Amino acid sequence: MKIHIMPEGPTILLMKEDLLKLEGKTVTNAKGSIISDKNIVVGETLKEVRTFGKLTFLVFKKFSFRIHLLMYGSYSLFEKKNLSHTLRLGLQFKNEEVYFYTCSAKIINNKELKKIDWEADIMSKKWNTENAKNKMRQNPEMMICDALMDQDIFSGVGNIIKNEALFRAEIHPESKIKNLSTKQLDKIIEHTKDYSFDFLKWKRTNELKKHFQVYHREICPKCGEKIIRKDTGKGKRASFYCENDQILL
């Protein structure tokens, strides 16, 4: 099984579910472009699989593998030979194995895990709404489209969630933080969180795309006007929005 996934928080959680069966098992072999000496990990036991937004951590006693699938990464529960995709990390256990292709993978010291603001993960039980609002208010000139894609504020939010949540909240993606009221920020956060869990639910049943309201759509489902597609914010990521139903502030 080789899986390419759109790396947003919900799909990373689905990947985590596949990897959880590896917890408590001992590595018997390791390969991939980031493995310079497999003896570093062979014989070590995988203690925990942790996620933070779009990042996955395979946690061992003294170190972890940090994995980000980027735009075109994938993982597989068995090795695929002769692929055009680069094998970055492969771990074999007694009866299980996992491989990560065309992604960012790095060995880190576990001390780095303590530096992560786990409350910034939109799908975590540790999520902290007030912290997110405070971070946004510290950047009053930032457009809301950039804020939602900022992984230090909304870890796990990707372009699909950004667009669909802003449509639900009736806010134009180019609206600046300084022009948004506390009520509007709360509304945006609520819809972003809710849509993230809807995304997870629909992805499980393979029906995510049929629920898109503005993302790569042409007509607004509310008013029937044309959906605008524009590269917005500092990141110049594609935004899809309705000028009638989403207020520019």
From TrEMBL:
Top-rank taxon: Bacteria
Alphabetically ordered keywords of this record: DNA damage, DNA repair, DNA-binding, Glycosidase, Hydrolase, Lyase, Multifunctional enzyme
The keyword Iron appears for this protein: no
Domain annotation Formamidopyrimidine-DNA glycosylase H2TH DNA-binding: ranges: 118-196
Domain Formamidopyrimidine-DNA glycosylase catalytic: from-to ranges: 7-104
Pfam families per record: Fapy_DNA_glyco, H2TH
Reactions that this protein is recorded to catalyse: Hydrolysis of DNA containing ring-opened 7-methylguanine residues, releasing 2,6-diamino-4-hydroxy-5-(N-methyl)formamidopyrimidine
Family named by the database record: Belongs to the FPG family.
Name of the protein in its database record: DNA-formamidopyrimidine glycosylase family protein
Gene source species: Chryseobacterium zhengzhouense
